[in-house]
Specification:
The chain is 43% helix and 10% strand. It is an alpha/beta fold and 218 residues long. It has two domains: 138 residues, Rossmann fold (3-Layer(aba) Sandwich); 71 residues, Putative phosphatase, domain 2 (DNA polymerase, domain 1, Orthogonal Bundle). Strands 3-2-1-4-5-6 form a six-stranded parallel sheet. Helix 1 crosses helix 4 and helix 3 crosses helix 4. The longest helix is centred in the middle third of the chain and has 16 residues.
Length: 218
């Protein structure tokens, strides 16, 4: 079925935010007396594409933290959002603007569907100047269930006024691919250094960069 819209994930696909997320976890641990930093492999396997509230359960169990998951989540989100206010931390992924320019030139509406809270997504999209390019933006805080549930993608398609089967989703993580496919969309996996080892075989295709994903926009 011909592509009528393209929906982007946010973290790790539009913006190189995983190093910032990782840094926020390290700062959180230091505040709780833990001098430990996750390497790329462990971070990618245990954190990327997984809801942050579940990350807090992992930290509490792994390090025996006495704070509640709710307290950890509140502190961690405050740390991350503070980091996002620093322009140097908002780094676009390679090729994202060129790909969006190409899609818009073809008349395809664009959307973002992210598992992150709306407040964080808005900071990033405004900071990168991407917000005006979008016809729709759906965040994890806008829906009952976040990825790997399909809710953000289903709502994004509805806001675009396009059937899910006519949407092409671009994702970097296994949970994101699962969410888009569950919504009934074709999905192209564009892994980064943190998600390259994840199982992305359930995507319709896997490419090495965003520009290569344009081959699948029919």
């Amino acid at each position: 079925m011909r592509t009528q819209a393209v929906i982007f994930d946010l973290d790790g696909l539009i913006v190189d935010s995983e190093p910032v997320h990782r840094r926020a976890f390290h700062i959180l641990l230091k505040r709780h007396g833990i001098a430990y930093e996750f390497d790329v492999v462990e971070y990618g396997q245990c954190f990327v594409g997984i809801p942050v509230k579940d990350n807090m359960d992992y930290l509490k169990t792994r390090f025996g933290l006495t704070a509640s998951p709710e307290e950890l989540l509140r502190d961690r989100e405050a740390i991350y959002e503070a980091l996002l206010t620093e322009p140097a931390n908002l780094v676009p992924m390679p090729g994202v603007f060129a790909v969006m320019d190409h899609l818009q030139a073809r008349g395809l509406p664009l959307a973002v569907a992210t598992g992150s809270p709306r407040s964080q997504g808005e900071i990033i999209l405004r900071g990168l100047g991407i917000a005006p390019r979008l016809r729709a933006f759906v965040a994890g805080s806008d829906v009952p269930r976040t990825k790997p549930a399909p809710d953000v993608y289903v709502r994004a398609a509805a806001e675009l006024g396009v059937a899910p089967a006519q949407c092409l989703a671009l994702e970097d993580s296994a949970t994101g691919v699962t969410a888009a496919r569950a919504a009934g969309m074709r999905v192209i996996a564009v892994p980064n250094q943190y998600t390259a080892a994840q199982d992305l075989a359930h995507a319709d295709a896997r490419v090495e960069c965003l520009a290569d994903a344009l081959r699948y926009v029919d």
